[in-house]
Structure formats: structure tokens, C-alpha cells
Amino acid sequence: MVLSLAIASAISLGVADYLAGATLRSDGRMNAALPYTAIGAIFGAIVVSVALPFAPPEEFSSTDLYWSLAAGTATGLALPLLMVGMARGPMAVVAPVLGLVSMAVPAIVGPILGDRLTSVEVIGLLVAFPAAGLVSLSDHESEESAPIPRAIALAAGAGALFGTAAICFGQTSTASGIAPGVVAQITTAALLSTGTILTRRLIRPRSHAMTLSAAVGILTAIAVFLSVLAYQRGPVAIVAAVIGLAPGPTVLLARMVARESIRSIQLVGFALGIVAVILFALG
Fold first, then answer.
1. d(CA 89, CA 74)
2. Using CA of residue 185, residue 88, residue 161, residue 232, what is the dihedral sign?
3. Higher pLDDT, 135 or 231
4. Which of 71, 5, 70, 85 is nearest to 37 (CA)?
5. Inter-CA distances, 251 with 57, 59, 210, 283, Å
6. List of residues 6+ apart from 27 with CB closer than 8 A
7. pLDDT tens digit string along 139-150?
8. How far apart are CA 160 and CA 199, in angstroms?
9. How far, in whole angstroms, is CA 170 from its chain's centroid?
10. 128 in Cβ contact with 55 (< 8 Å)
11. What is the pTM of this model?
């Protein structure tokens, strides 16, 4: 159950990451990242809010509320960094850095907070780290695709914030159900909308980019919805490791839509990802 939720979340997030890059590229304005992430977050908040009455929490304590607000704040800070990073730097750099850092934070903090991993799960975690990097390696070696320090910093910052959100969701109770995801998504939408207004990024959205940003927001909200349920039921480090394999779906989508080639080394990454998931299941 836990792995199924995490895998579904990774797929949804991988598609959202691909569309996030497409959104800003189709618009062409780097300063449009904040308003587009705000638009996406608002659509996502609407989707999860509609779902809440159909799955009300058994109990939602003040502790659940505080952790949910913290998760939403971390996500709200991460999304603009992710979009700008993907626009400024090559996917081959941004995706693996994002995935690896978002894995590393829960892997380090999770055991400190009480997660207990079996030896098989630890091996799976060690396999998942190179898998996340290998699936994102492209064959573009042009000057335009060279690693950009700022893009790497943005990706690392976004990954650390997503990892922090994972830890926060892991501290909510199972009885709270999807409520933490709803509170977090509303918090993210409110934070990004406020940031858009305060920084005067009220840019007129272009219709095609707005449609993409709405899709990104909805897919991200679904990923959050699924990840909350997974974090509540399994070790944060393991769930984060599976979700950290999201670059895999991103690469596959790029292959199908943009006709980008897949290298042999990327296939090795896919194979390692499958091995990691199998080890988690056996653990």
C-alpha cells in the first residue's frame, strides 16, 4: 500500500516537473515563475479541497495543523525555485540534484526522528540514490547545456525544501488522513499569491502557459495528496526515496513528447530504480 502510494506520487510529480519546465519555456519570461506557480497552487488547492468532504479526517489535532502549515510553507518556497532552476539550467543537472537532495534530507533526519529501517531497506536506499541520478543523465553537451552554478543552487534549495516538507508530513497522524495535504496546499497557494502581489509580479498570463501551470498545480496537488498518505504509513526515508525517483517519468515523457533520446546509462538508472522498489517491498 505504502509503495503503491509513493510510486503513484512519483509518477504524478515527474509529469508535473516536465510540464513546469514547459510552462516557463513557452512563456519565455523568467520573472513569470512566481505568478505561474501561484496559479498552479490555487488550482491544486481547489482540487484537494473538493476531495476533503469525501474523506474527512477521523481526528485533526493542533500538532497536525502546525506540521501541515510547515509543509505547505516549505513547498511554497520550493516551487518557484524549481521552475526557475529548470528554466535556467539543463534538465540533466536540475532533475538529479533535486531528486538526490530531496532524498538525502529525509534519509538523514528520518532515523533521528525515530524511523527504523531494516538492512534490506537500507540497501534499497543506497541503490535508489544512484538510480535517481542516472535516469536524468542526458547526452546534451552543448555550451547551453553546461552545468550552471545558479541552477544547481536553485535545484539543491528546492530539493532541501521538498525534503523538509516530506519530514513534516511524516509527523502528522494517520487519523488526520488527507487533511494535512489540504492545509498544506492552501498554505502554498496563499504564500505564493501573497509573494506575487508583494513582489509586483502581476504579469498577464499567456493562455497556453496558464493552462500548463494549472495542470502542473493539479498534478502536484495529487502528488502531495498521495505522498501524505504514504508518509503517514511508512518510513519517511523510504517513501522519499521512491518519490525521489520522479525524474524517471520526466525522462520518459521527454522521450515520448519531445523525442529526446534515452542513453544506455539512463536505462541502467531505470533498472536500479526497479531494484530499489523491489528491495523496499521485501524489507
1. 22
2. positive
3. 231
4. 85
5. 36, 40, 23, 28
6. 36, 205, 206, 209
7. 554 444 444 677
8. 24
9. 15
10. no
11. 0.81
Long-range contacts of the stretch 33-36 (C-beta < 8 A, 24+): 33/80, 33/83, 33/84, 33/87, 34/80, 34/192, 34/195, 34/196, 34/199, 34/201, 35/196, 35/201, 35/202, 35/203, 35/205, 36/83, 36/205, 36/209, 36/210, 36/213, 36/216
Q: Confidence band (pLDDT; 50, 70, 90) for 132? A: low
Give dist(CA 173, CA 67) in Å, integer: 10
**CA–CA distance from 132 to each of 61, 98, 152 (Å)?**
35, 9, 16
Lowest mean pLDDT among 19-28, 30-39, 176-185: 19-28
Length of the chain, please? 283
CA triple 85-19-259, angle to 5 deg: 100
Spatial distance between the Cα atoms of 151 and 147, rounded to a whole number of angstroms: 8
- Per-residue DSSP letter, 31: G
What value, to the nearest 5°, has the Cα angle with vertex 140 and ends 136 and 144?
Answer: 110
pLDDT tens digits along 155-181: 889 989 999 999 999 899 999 999 999
